[in-house]
Write a structure and sequence with these properties.
This protein has helices at 37-44, 50-58, 132-139, 172-183, 256-263, 286-298, 328-342; strands at 14-18, 21-27, 35-36, 62-64, 67-68, 75-76, 81-87, 103-106, 110-115, 163-169, 188-196, 203-207, 210-212, 220-222, 230-238, 242-249, 304-312, 319-323. It folds into 3 domains: 3-87, RNA-binding S4 domain (Structural Genomics Hypothetical 15.5 Kd Protein In mrcA-pckA Intergenic Region, Chain A); 103-183, 2-Layer Sandwich (Pseudouridine synthase); 188-342, 2-Layer Sandwich (Pseudouridine synthase), CATH 3.30.2350. 35% of the residues are buried. It has 344 residues and is of the alpha+beta class. Helices cover 21% and strands 28% of the residues.
Amino acid sequence: MTGTERGDLRHPPTESQTGGETVYVFHAAPTAGKVRLDVFITRSVENASRSKVQESIAAGRVTVNGVIVLKAGHHVAGGDVVVCRVPKPPPPLVEAENIPLDIRYEDESVLVVNKPAMMVVHPAHGNHSGTLVNALLWHTRRLSSAGGADRPGILHRLDKGTSGLLCVARTDEAHRFLAKQFAERTIEREYLAIVWGTPEPRTGVVEAPIGRHRSDRKRMAVTGEGKPAATEYTVVKDFGPLSLLRLKLRTGRTHQIRVHLSSMRHPLLGDPVYGGRRILYGSVTPAYKHFIAELLDVLPRQALHARTLGFVHPVTRQRVFVESELPADMQEALERIERYFSAP
């Protein structure tokens, strides 16, 4: 392999906002082999396309060791410092779409939505419609603007493949009040998850920093350069090769639960990114393999559900607590697991 797939970055790139552009700084590892400039940058930036990177190079927005380089085929060598400046695109125009919402709580200041799995929270690269924000704008035009024009009302996110409760602010005042609770980690969030194996001890806290994966910018990883992250877990049901966990977030990093569980060798069942779609525990019999294949057909995403959400209301200052049941796919998966492992 070549490029950052072979560990050519000395450490993850830094990213900063300057005026109307995003500035990326890359440090090639001293022992890295030579690789084309456009390939080096494309592999290092999440959602970057090679054509867009080539446009930036041709426009003089890329330097290598402080010198502007206009050729995409220029070779980056070990120890080189590459800086890429990318103009920020205008926020996309977000259209209201008539998409049904499962609203579990609503008043003039805040609402809580039970997000289905496979729905993206807000428009982003490759997902400009069909998002929760598109659905919210059809439901109401009264949403906070504090998060930006493309993310009205959004205070926090759930991964596309994660189902469950999500809090939305309807006014800027509510947004600031609730965002403070998220920042101070006083929001109550509990998740249910089906994982491979059974963690030992059966109750504990995973404390490990999380940052961008060195070679795959779409993934996160436990890394020394990451931000502190902590996840509480408790085994609710133990089936041996699989188990049901209850989890609480002490921090809110991207992919936190998925990364922490994977780092323990207990990834979420069905997780397509962090190793949850291959057999990790159990027998190698044809019957067991068939059972797991059918289970993964039922659950084509990570088995993770945001079950509870608790916060102090921005107006009444009273505690609000909302719960949601397991979605149909996770419920069916659990029932199949219980039947299989309880059979004589």
